[in-house]
């Protein structure tokens, strides 16, 4: 039997936090509820890998929730996949949330009925990833001499030394997975998410801001060279 995913809920509205906790339990997860950014950061430092998902309110009493993500990303501290909650759903927030590796961007008042399948799918995906056997590493080189492939190789090389998130698109069998693994391993650290984990809203809102290498994988890794 698989271990339930631990979900950190960071929300200062006690009633909403309690409702989110119920939704997490219904989705098969174990909720841990905190009411401030400072306590959330301490919990991430203390529990780290035990937390599989974070539901984070942007409008926290001590500071903006995105500031928590920025700080931890800048310092290369542990960050689980994140669902963002906000009462002010500006487009620029959606774009930055995607840049920080957020799975979904939800506006308040939260539609709990709509949230339930999102949570269920996210936790199922995370459990499957945790239980999946390690994959065989892809080769770190490509073989090819066609002139038409030179821009592709140049783009991959630039992506390997970039801080920008990467969205990789293409037909089945064109090497998206190999390319994502290559960029990830050249950057040495970071996370690669399968695009089904991202909501269509985030995918479309941020498409113009991403480095154009493209829909199946996104790599949001800090520079490490």
Summarize the structure.
With 225 residues, this protein is of the alpha/beta class. Helix content is 41%, strand content 16%. It starts with 5 loop residues before the first strand and ends in a 6-residue tail after the last strand.
Q: What is the 3D shape?
A: globular
CATH topology of the largest domain: Rossmann fold
Over the alpha carbons, how many angstroms does the gyration radius reach? 18 Å
- Helix % is 40-55%
Number of helices: 8
Mean pLDDT, rounded to whole units? 75
User: Sheet bearing the most strands, described?
Assistant: 5 strands, parallel
The tally of domains stands at: 2
Low-confidence stretches: 189-197, 205-225
The CA-CA distance between the termini, in Å, is: 40 Å
- Name of the top-level CATH class of the largest domain: Alpha Beta
CATH architectural type of the largest domain? 3-Layer(aba) Sandwich
Number of strands: 8
What this model shows, in words?
- The protein folds into two domains: 126 residues, Response regulator (Rossmann fold), CATH 3.40.50.2300; 73 residues, no CATH class.
- 41% of the residues lie in helices and 16% in strands.
- The protein is built from eight helices and eight strands, in the order βαβαβαβαβααβαβαβ.
- Helix 1 links the parallel strand 1 and strand 2.
- The chain is globular, with a radius of gyration of 18 Å.
């Amino acid at each position: 039997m698989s271990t339930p995913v631990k979900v950190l809920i960071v929300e200062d509205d006690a009633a909403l936090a309690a409702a989110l906790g119920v939704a997490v339990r219904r989705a098969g997860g174990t909720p841990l509820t905190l009411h401030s950014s400072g306590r959330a950061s301490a919990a991430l430092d203390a529990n780290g890998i035990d937390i599989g998902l974070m539901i984070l309110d942007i409008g926290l009493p001590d500071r903006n929730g995105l500031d928590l993500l920025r700080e931890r990303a800048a310092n290369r501290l542990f960050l689980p996949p994140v669902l963002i909650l906000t009462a002010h759903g500006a487009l620029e927030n959606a774009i930055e949330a995607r840049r920080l590796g957020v799975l979904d961007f939800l506006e308040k008042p939260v539609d709990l009925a709509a949230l339930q399948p999102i949570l269920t799918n996210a936790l199922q995906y995370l459990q499957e990833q945790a239980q999946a056997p390690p994959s065989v590493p892809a080769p770190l080189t490509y073989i090819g001499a066609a002139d038409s492939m030179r821009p592709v190789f140049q783009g991959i090389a630039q992506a390997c030394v970039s801080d920008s998130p990467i969205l990789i698109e293409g037909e089945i069998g064109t090497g998206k997975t190999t390319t994502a693994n290559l960029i990830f391993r050249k950057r040495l650290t970071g996370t690669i998410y399968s695009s089904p984990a991202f909501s269509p809203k985030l995918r479309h809102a941020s498409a113009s801001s991403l480095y154009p290498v493209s829909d199946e994988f996104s790599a949001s890794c800090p520079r490490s060279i």
